Amino acid sequence: MATLELNLLSNLANKHSKPPYLRFQYGTAGFRTLGANLDSVLFRVGVLAGLRSKKQDGKTIGVMVTASHNPEPDNGVKLVDPRGEMLEAAWEAHATTLSNADTTEELLEVIANIIQVAKIDISKPARVVYARDTRPSGEALVASLEDGLRAVGAEARNAGVTTTPVLHYLVRAINTKSTTESYGEDSEDGYYEKMCGAYKKLVANRPLPPPLIVDCANGVGTFAADRVKDILGSTLPITLVNTATTTVGALNNASGADFVKTSQRLPPSLSDTLKPGERACSLDGDADRLIYFYLDESGTFKMLDGDKIAALVASFIVEQVKLAGLENKVRVGIVQTAYANGASTKYLSSRLPVKCVATGVKHLHHAAEHYPIGVYFEANGHGTVLFSPETVRTLETHQPSTPAQSTALNYLINLTQLINQTVGDALSDMLLVEAVLAHKSYSAVEWDGLYSDLPNRLVKVVVADRNIFQTQDAERRLVSPPGLQAKIDELVRRYDAGRSFVRPSGTEDVVRVYAEAMLKPLADELAFRVAGLVYDETGGDAFTRPK
Ligand code: G16
Fold first, then answer.
1. C-alpha distance from residue 164 to each of 131, 423, 475 (Å)
2. Would residue 53 show up in a list of annotated catalytic residues for this protein?
3. Domain assignment present for 252
4. Cα separation of 261 and 257, whole Å?
5. Per-residue model confidence (pLDDT) at position 544
6. What number does the ligand 1 atom closest to the CA of 360 have?
7. Separation of alpha carbons 148 and 31, rounded Å
8. Which domain of life does this protein belong to (predicted)?
9. How far apart are CA 105 and CA 87, in angstroms?
10. Fewer CB in 10 Å around end: N or C, the chain?
């Protein structure tokens, strides 16, 4: 379509009118709320994706329909920019404005305004690739999205039911196809073959590991993990659990990375089968988070979260950089958020530069891009390792002077192939962890021994309006409501190794409270007392529940 066909646009928009009583916001991970409320949002996201593609000269934009770790009735949608990264921040505001236009007339005005403000040449082509997770509301929402794409004349490719990281990969692979920057074959299989091929090279000549149990959260990660299991065969024996993708209510329920991280216990389905010392891991509902865990000799649950993954992986990469003779050319840096366990920050910052940024993959990703090799992980298991284009060139052109240097260099090159450069992927991260464990001959216990976590507790508080909570200093301090931070500081001072912060969630209608202290009962107490302060501040019908 050379121009917008306004009749078609308004007719389709009328089919997807916005419920008058709802307000939407493009937050930490796009739009997220009850799936039943998202019809108009999906239509408009389709329109916006088309406009974004036109703005990017017809490059393919991605749309992922998922609510990831959220409960099954929720759903959500986010846009992916041409290099496979999160949508540019300025366009998040366009997304929010577009989603809140109350009538079709208003919607057309907002669209005209975006075209003008963003200087979009509407005659350019538009291309969009989209996918969804396994949520029951997904199919209807994709149909709404398709209407939006049709309304702006976008050429659309349906990637079907797949994981968030696959969609990010596809966007980059499509946009770099047949160029010198080609990121790989633009198919799901192309992705898994690339990742698994690199893994096989990394672990060649290493002893076969004991089987790994993978909790798939009853979500779309089941399909991805199954594919990886098939391709790797005996190279990495994998047992899949929590694979009930069609059982209503099963998604993320008593399973998955968010459950394990926040409740700090085994998925109940494993309580009779996991043996002490066996390692297992959990994916989340769209397979972009990964948490490992095991039982120690006494049967006590031990968690290896995003912080522990960062510590393991960063130390391996630093070693290989040194062994390759690149110590003076390639620096490694770490990015964390306020949720990083204090013990992990202490461990890492005594070895490497560490930066703390606000929650949200996009913040970590951008900060990690400033390092030649940037290792970023949120404690909740989101993360990846970024190799700057210059680092990749250095690896490709470096002339090793010994066989040992050559081996290390090849490991680093294989890591660039194994690790998803667009966004964290639970499966790619899992293979990364497995490769490092194989190289270090570490069991889960030895990995866990890198440092000891400070006991911690995360709770959520349901409040009438989470927007009154505003933060600064990478979300470590509240600036609003006035006076609340001083009360938190006063409480924290009373706890040995105490630390606590409060921030509004960007994906759920809650305020999150994190606390750590020298002893577990004290971390729990501090978290609940800070939650009490939040409750007192907001009053009314607030309540807390474990998060
Ligand atoms: C999303 C974001 C993550 C963030 C998480 C929780 O994850 O992508 O970066 O850590 O939400 O965010 P909040 O505490 O603001 O709710 P996911 O796995 O749900 O897409």
1. 8, 9, 26
2. no
3. yes
4. 6
5. 47
6. 9
7. 16
8. Eukaryota
9. 26
10. N
